[in-house]
Write a structure and sequence with these properties.
This protein is an alpha/beta fold. The chain is built from 11 helices and 8 strands.
């Protein structure tokens, strides 16, 4: 990757791996390298927009093809997760050195210095992990460095927050005993725990159990968009107090004050959420967590090639180059280094 834009962007969350498997089953590897209608991330667009990597999610779709509210079986989740790990490896192998799967912040910094994309493996909803955690080390050896215990459905580890608007994120029980143990073990191993998709009780269960920075990879401000998926003021303060990070989610349903999925959203709304998070937490605790290829973004951000429009909007809103650099990647690298230990 050559001649990157001024602000390299390390993104907290995307769903491109599942999208490629579901929509490009005959050519998933090749489909990562060129733009395609309805696909937010591809290598060509990433180079144009300064998207230099991030947490690449492995989310498990419904086993029956219909019901997202029911957790899939462990066997199905494991097989799907391994398919996505294999896909990312195949993409990296086919990239002619342009993509380097990373396992540490040292790896990420080296990749960025060499102009390579730096993806990191993340599990979104831990159905592939056995409740006794006996296969967690194997996933770690495969490169897993981040886990969201739940998506927005219950599993063996926690009770995910259902999608509701307007509503509080206080929707039910928090972590199970297996969930508490997962947090403790991940802390010891150096695996990040992602609080996006946790309900409020689960959030506070993790906050009182974890000794690492709190991470909400792709969640916005509840005061500005009162969906269950967004963060309350108290949650934002807890993230700051832990020296953690919240990543701005581009999903319009989590940006708009009306909670609608209408993509006609001005970039000023994204800036409003960032302003609020900065006011509550300080500039060192805000990042980007696009949810690309998992949810509809504003039209002005519907490709990684368009990311410079957001950094331009931040500059016009008064953010310095140093501030924007922190939001775009340095805050993420600091938090991950604090969490992983390297």
């Amino acid at each position: 990757m050559t001649n990157p834009p001024s602000f390299p962007i390390f993104d907290g969350h995307n769903d491109i791996l599942l999208k490629l498997l579901e929509e490009c089953a005959d050519r998933p590897v090749e489909s990562f390298f060129t733009p395609r209608d309805g696909q937010h991330i591809d290598l060509k667009s990433a180079k144009a927009g300064g998207f230099v990597g991030g947490l690449f999610a492995m989310f498990i779709p419904p086993e029956d093809g219909r019901s997202y509210s029911k957790a899939p079986s462990q066997e199905f989740a494991r097989d799907m997760t391994m398919n996505m790990i294999t896909l990312l490896r195949d993409i990296a192998a086919a990239s002619d050195g342009d993509i380097s799967i990373c396992r540490s912040v040292r790896d990420i910094r080296a990749a960025l210095a060499q102009g390579k994309m730096a993806p990191v493996l993340h599990i979104e909803g831990a159905e592939a992990i056995l409740p006794d955690l006996s296969n967690l080390e194997a996933f770690y050896a495969d490169g897993l460095r981040s886990i969201g215990p739940v998506w927005s459905r219950s599993n063996a580890f926690a009770h995910g927050v259902p999608f509701k608007f307007p509503a509080s994120p206080d929707t039910g029980p928090g972590l199970t005993e297996a969930g508490f143990e997962m947090v403790r073990v991940c802390n010891q191993m150096g695996i990040a725990i992602d609080l996006s998709h946790m309900n409020e009780k689960g959030f506070w269960d993790i906050a009182k159990t974890s000794d690492k920075p709190l991470i909400a990879s792709h969640s916005n401000v509840h005061k500005l968009c009162p969906t269950t998926r967004n963060l309350t003021d108290d949650q934002l303060k807890a993230i700051k107090d832990s020296n953690g990070i919240a990543g701005l989610n581009f999903a319009v349903a989590f940006l708009r004050a009306d909670g609608e999925k209408n993509q006609d959203v001005p970039l000023s709304v994204c800036v409003d959420h960032i302003n609020y998070m900065v006011d509550m937490m300080g500039i060192d605790h805000v990042g980007l967590g696009s949810d690309y290829d998992g949810a509809p973004p504003p039209y002005d951000l519907d490709s990684t090639a368009k990311l410079p429009a957001l950094t331009k909007a931040l500059s016009e809103a008064g953010y310095s180059d140093q501030d924007i650099t922190k939001i775009c990647h340095e805050n993420w690298l600091r938090v991950l280094e604090d969490t992983w230990g390297e």
